[in-house]
Amino acid sequence: AATTAVYKQWIPNTNFETGSNWDKGRVPCASDVVHFEKNKVVSVFVRSPHALTDMYLPLNGELVLASGAGFTAFDGSWDPGCDSGATVRFADAEHHAWFDPTLWQAVSPSRELEPGGHIFSVDEERVPCHYDDVIFQPETSFRVNVDSSRQVIHLRSISLMGQELSSPEAWAGYLRGPSAPLQFHGNGTLQVTGTSCPDKSGCACGNTPDRHRICTALLGASGRQCPAPACRSPLQPLGHCCRVCGATISLDFTPDFDLQKYRDRLVQALLSQPKYAGVRMAISKVHKARTFLGVIPRSSTPLIQIVLIDDKVGAQTGTAAEQMAADIMEDIAQHGEALGISSGKMEVATGSTFSGQAGSHALSRITVGVVLGLLFGLLLLGGILFLYRKGKLRSLPRLPALRLPRPWDRAEDPASPAPASDKGFDNPMFDV
Predict the structure, then answer these.
(1) How many CB atoms are closer than 10 A to CB 429?
(2) 253: which strand partners?
(3) Does domain 228-352 bear CATH number 3.30.70?
(4) Which residues are CB-neighbours of 13 under 8 A, at least 6 positions away?
(5) Nearest-5° angle of CA 327, CA 333, CA 338?
(6) CA 53 to CA 82: how far, in whole Å?
(7) Where are the CATH 3.30.70 domain residues in the chain?
């Protein structure tokens, strides 16, 4: 399970010794007055002993003391590093949201930070997914807002205070304890399942219902606006908040496809090449919405999405990603059947051009729409014919023909005056 599990670690904490948790940007010292807001719920881990002049506590909260930690009254002796005597207030931790991608980082199964490297995740997958393991660092306190568009947020396991909770029963027991309500707040409920992704082709993340929360939090950190892409007609990967330059590949797969093995294949065979040193790749299973005639929502279908971006600038933006995408498509053409890949579609956007791949894909959608329209018309005509033959549909009455008098009709009606000239009207085929 460790080879396929994804571990995501929560970054912020509410520790007493973390300077950024105080409005003065430093840990309170002996001559300071410590002030916790009266109505702010908080859980604070205290790692070491502290002498303080005074401390105002919240009405609802907890201090979690490590071995040997605690508080003593300041005896008034001179401290060369603390002569301010200021009021130091604990920062507000209510704004730390579960669906903020900037507050999570990927770690290895050994709890070490994963290097930036060649692999990244689309924005929806930077937040813990359905089958991920969540880690809150040992000897840290925290408070996180779990507001969600879903009633239940499923996870494989949660580790906190050095204890891993990997079963529904263990997690339910923790929720009944005193700390859980102080650490988790909001309308969502975390649920530990203890199960890994059962499909070797991968599992979709499941965070799409909360995409708006993810993007709002992400763009809020950068001024609420996506950066302007350096290419024409940038691409919009599924699960990503902003458009990108580079390449995307969508793969249709068979039951033989193995996502982990294919990811390793791409990393070893392509990403490790020196010419692709500046290329980064995201690969995962996503669900793409299907529509009828390009308008009416119908259903969604799973596919494997590969997103490639590079560190090129100017007119060269995306060109390395484009070359790697072409190599992937060539590999699929040669070995796709053995890899469990039935088909692949590529779209590319670089700083100098926009690939015709996307254009041809759009043209194919238009063609499909025309074909479906013709089929619909044939079905309608067939239905009318069927009803007519069954006698359910009567034929329309024949309209009387419009007929103008002809010159040679004078013989039939002697009272009719003769025309001024019969020229041009002596041909019996000239009939209206």
Answers:
(1) 4
(2) 341
(3) yes
(4) 21, 45, 137, 140, 141, 142
(5) 110
(6) 11
(7) 228-352
Q: In what helix (H) or strand (E) does residue 83 lie, and over which residues does it extend?
A: none
What b/e sequence results for 140-157 when a residue is b if at least 16 CB atoms lie within 10 Å of its CB, and e otherwise? Answer: bbbbbbbebeeeebbbbb
Give the pLDDT score at 292.
Answer: 58
Q: CB of 31 within 8 A of CB of 83?
A: yes
Residues paired with 51 in a beta bridge = 72
For residue 71, the tally of other CB atoms under 10 A from its CB is 15
Instruction: Give the model's pLDDT for residue 350.
Output: 93
H/E element holding 245?
none
Tell me the sheet residues that pair with 284: 305
CA distance 20 to 27: 8
Q: Output 337-340 pairs: Cβ under 8 A, ≥24 positions apart.
A: 339/256, 339/257, 339/262, 339/265, 340/201, 340/253, 340/254, 340/255, 340/256, 340/257, 340/258
- pLDDT tens, position by position, 133-143: 999 999 999 99
Check residue 432 and give its pLDDT.
Answer: 43
- The dihedral region occupied by 336, where left means phi > 0, alpha psi between -120 and 50, and beta the remainder, is alpha
Mention every residue, 6+ apart, whose C-beta is less than 8 A from residue 356: none
Q: Which of 97, 96, 103 is nearest to 11 (CA)?
A: 103
Question: Which segments within 108-222 are labelled E, that is strand?
Answer: 133-135, 144-145, 152-155, 157-160, 163-165, 184-185, 189-192
Q: What is the pLDDT of residue 378?
A: 74
Q: Which of 127, 291, 134 is nearest to 211 (CA)?
A: 127
Q: Work out whether the CA dihedral 349, 355, 359, 361 comes out positive or negative.
A: negative
Query: Tell me, what's the pLDDT at 351?
Result: 87
* Stretches in the chain below the pLDDT threshold 70: 1-5, 110-116, 221-223, 291-298, 353-376, 387-432
Q: How many helices (H) and strands (E) does the chain have?
A: 6, 20
Cβ(101)–Cβ(127) below 8 Å: yes
DSSP 58: P
Cα Rg for the chain, rounded, in angstroms?
Answer: 35
